[in-house]
Each structure stands twice: as structure tokens, then as C-alpha cells.
UniProtKB/TrEMBL annotation:
Segments passing through the bilayer: 20-51, 72-92, 98-117, 201-222
PROSITE patterns: ABC_TM1 (PS50928)
Protein name per its UniProtKB record: Nopaline ABC transporter permease NocQ
Keywords: Cell inner membrane, Cell membrane, Membrane, Transmembrane, Transmembrane helix, Transport
Organism: Phyllobacterium phragmitis
Lineage: Bacteria, Pseudomonadati, Pseudomonadota, Alphaproteobacteria, Hyphomicrobiales
Pfam family, one: BPD_transp_1
Length: 237
């Protein structure tokens, strides 16, 4: 069977399976990225807080999650949550191991890891703001929430876009690790197809091309967002 037939949409082709797995990859990456964005905002707020305890929590979070291998985090989330579910099921008479939902635990694991990186991105974006504008708002007596909404948030988002784009690329690559807990995403589907047809090169080459396509499209989207956000802003030559 040639490559076009193998990756086609006929009765013997794997085209539909690979596209469905690509959709699963995008879905788990988006969920993990959005979860990380929420955690990143909270982490950045804690890191910039005037309270030492909150700063210590943020520092511990970012240090630990960036220091532990991502695959280990996924294993800890999956087997840890599965142990809790199994223990709860045993209270109702169930026996044996009850696995946690692979999509949910995988997205949460990726989100927690990406949140550590997004914490630093958002923190750096806030610190990059011109201090004169914030001091002027305080001198004017602007309430903290109004100052955050009108001054800090719009400009911090502008400075954060490049770093957030890099975190997205990291999340997309991390999504391939979720195959170890049974989620049939792009990498796992390529492994299944390679084992079934004994043509690993064709499947892994297709998977690589699909990953590059997602990366190209999303990267282009982030570049357009950055260009739009920086309109009217003088950049250093």
C-alpha cells in the first residue's frame, strides 16, 4: 500500500483516524493552556503581592513545577487521582483499579505545568509596565480595580503575547506525552497505525507534518495578535 492510500480516506486509509487524533491533540492542548493561563494569572498576582507568604507560595510553585519532568507530573496526576477514585469506589463495594479520565487528568497536568511558566510571563509583563503611569494613577486617586482594568491589564497583555505564544508551543509538544496514560491523541494514533501496518515512518512523518501545521497556524495567529496589540507603540530600533 502506497503512502496516499495509507493516509487516504478510503476503507483501508487512516486519514480519518489521524485527523480525529489531531483534533484531540488540539483540544487537550487548548484546555491545558487555558487552565495554565488561569493559574498563571493567580501565580503572577501572588508573586507581585506585598504579602511575603503569597510570594513564597508563587516561588515554590514555579520552582517545583519547572524542575520536575513533565512526564512525571502527568504520571503523578493520573495515578494519584486514580488511587483516590479507586479508594472512593471501594467504599461502595467496587474492587480493583479505577483509572481516572485520561483527557481530564492530562489537561490538568499540562495546565499546572504551563501555569508555572505563564506565571513568570505575566509577572515579567507587569514589571515591564512604565512605572510613571501607575504612579500617576495612584496620585490621581484611581481605585485599584479601575487602575488594573484600564492601565495594567491592557498593557501587560500586550507585553505578554510573545511569551504566551512560546508557552503555547510548549503545551502543544507536551500534549504528546499524554499518550502514556492511554489518551488517543496524535502521537498515540501514530503509534497504533505504525504497529498495525508496520509502516512506522509513514505514520510518524504524517504526525510530524500535522504538528508543524498546527504550530504554523497558531504561531501565525500569535504574531498577528502581537502586531495588532503593538500598533502605535514605538519599538526600539
Amino acid at each position: 500500500m502506497n503512502y496516499l492510500q495509507l493516509m487516504g480516506f478510503g476503507p483501508d486509509g487512516w486519514g480519518y483516524d489521524m485527523l480525529a487524533a489531531t483534533g484531540m491533540t488540539v483540544a487537550v492542548a487548548v484546555c491545558g493552556f487555558l487552565t495554565g493561563a488561569v493559574l498563571g494569572c493567580l501565580g503572577a498576582a501572588a508573586a507581585l503581592s506585598r504579602f511575603r507568604a503569597l510570594r513564597a507560595v508563587a516561588e515554590t510553585y514555579t520552582t517545583v513545577l519547572r524542575g520536575i519532568p513533565d512526564l512525571l507530573v502527568i504520571y503523578l496526576f493520573y495515578f494519584g487521582s486514580s488511587s483516590v477514585i479507586s479508594a472512593a469506589a471501594a467504599l461502595f463495594g467496587a474492587q480493583g483499579f479505577v483509572g481516572a479520565p485520561a483527557f481530564l487528568t492530562g489537561a490538568l497536568a499540562i495546565g499546572v505545568v504551563s501555569g508555572a511558566y505563564q506565571t513568570q510571563v505575566f509577572r515579567g509583563a507587569v514589571l515591564a509596565l512604565p512605572k510613571g503611569e501607575i504612579e500617576a494613577a495612584r496620585a490621581y486617586g484611581m481605585p485599584s480595580f479601575l487602575m488594573f482594568r484600564r492601565i495594567i491589564l491592557p498593557q501587560a497583555a500586550r507585553f505578554a503575547i510573545p511569551g504566551v505564544g512560546n508557552v503555547w508551543q510548549l503545551v502543544l509538544k507536551e500534549s504528546a506525552l499524554i499518550s502514556v496514560i492511554g489518551l488517543v491523541e496524535l502521537m498515540r494514533q501514530a503509534q497504533i497505525g505504525a504497529g498495525s501496518t508496520r509502516q512506522p515512518f509513514s505514520f510518524y512523518l504524517t504526525a510530524a507534518a500535522l504538528y508543524l501545521l498546527i504550530t504554523f497556524v497558531s504561531g501565525r495567529g500569535f504574531r498577528l495578535a502581537e502586531e495588532r496589540a503593538m500598533r502605535g507603540i514605538r519599538r526600539p530600533v
